[in-house]
Amino acid sequence: MKTFEKIAVKDGARTELHDALHLTGAEISVNALPAGASVPFVHSHKQNEEIYCVLEGCGVIEIDGQKEQISAGEWFRVAPAAKRRIFAGDKGVKYICIQVKQGSLGGYTADDAIIG
Amino acid sequence: MKTFEKIAVKDGARTELHDALHLTGAEISVNALPAGASVPFVHSHKQNEEIYCVLEGCGVIEIDGQKEQISAGEWFRVAPAAKRRIFAGDKGVKYICIQVKQGSLGGYTADDAIIG
C-alpha cells in the first residue's frame, strides 16, 4: 500500500473514498442533496458509528423519528442503531459522512503519535 | 451514550471532536494555519491511518521528505509510519484530519447498513 494517496473530489451527488484512497479504518463519502431532496430511505448500522460534517447549506436529519436542524459548520455523531434520514433544506445541503467501527479507536493524538 | 450529538465548529486554530462528540471510532480535528505557518513538528503514528480533507486554501504536505501540493477539495490518506508535516500556502489552509486505527473497519455501507 502506498504511503500517500490523494484525490480531488468533484461536484456530484456522492463520492465514496474507501476504494479510491484504499482506506482501512473508515469509509467516507461526500454527498450533495439538491433543494427539497432527501436520502431515499431510513437506515441504521450494525456496527458503525457515523460522523457527519455539513459543508454547505442546511437541512434536517430525522433520528428515530425526531427532527434535528443541521447547517454548515456543524458536526454530529449518530450511534449505530439510530434510524436516520437526511432531508435537504431550501438551498440544498452538502455533507461529509464518515463511517467507522464503533469502539475501534485505541490511542490517538499524543498516545499514538511519534514526534520527529 | 446519546444517540445523536451535534456541535458547531467555530473558527480557530484547532478544534478536536473526539471528546466533544464522544467519538469511539475516530478522532477528528478541524485545523487552520495562517499564511506562511506550519504544523511546528514532523510526526508519524503507531497505529493510526490519517485521512485529510482540505476545506479552504492550499499548502504543502511533506511526506518522508517529499513535498506534495494540497488544495481545497482534495482528500488524502497518509499511512501510519509516514513522517508528515503540513505547511500553509500564501492564503493559509483550513483542513480536516481524521485519525482511525489502521485495519479497523469491518463491513461498511451495504454490508453494515440496515435499511428501514
Oligomer: homodimer
Helical residues, percent of chain A: under 10%
Which structural class do you get from the secondary structure elements of chain A?
A: mainly beta
Shape of chain A: globular
Question: With helices defined by DSSP (H or I, 4 residues minimum), what is the helix count of chain A?
Answer: 1
| Secondary-structure element string of chain A | EEHEEEEEEE
CATH architecture of the domain at 26-103 in chain A: Sandwich
Q: Regarding CATH, which class of the domain at 26-103 in chain A?
A: Mainly Beta
Mean pLDDT of chain A: 97
Protein architecture, described:
The structure is a homodimer of 116-residue chains. The first copy, chain A, is mainly beta and 116 residues long. Chain A has a domain at 26-103: Sandwich (Jelly Rolls), CATH 2.60.120. The first copy, chain A, has 1 helix and 9 strands, in the order E-E-H-E-E-E-E-E-E-E. Chain A has one helix spanning 18-21, and strands spanning 4-8, 14-16, 27-33, 43-45, 48-63, 66-71, 74-78, 84-101, 113-115. In chain A, strand 5 and strand 6 (66-71) form a beta hairpin. The longest helix of chain A is centred in the N-terminal third of the chain and has 4 residues, at 18-21. The mean pLDDT of chain A is 97. The interface between A and B is large, with 66 and 66 residues.
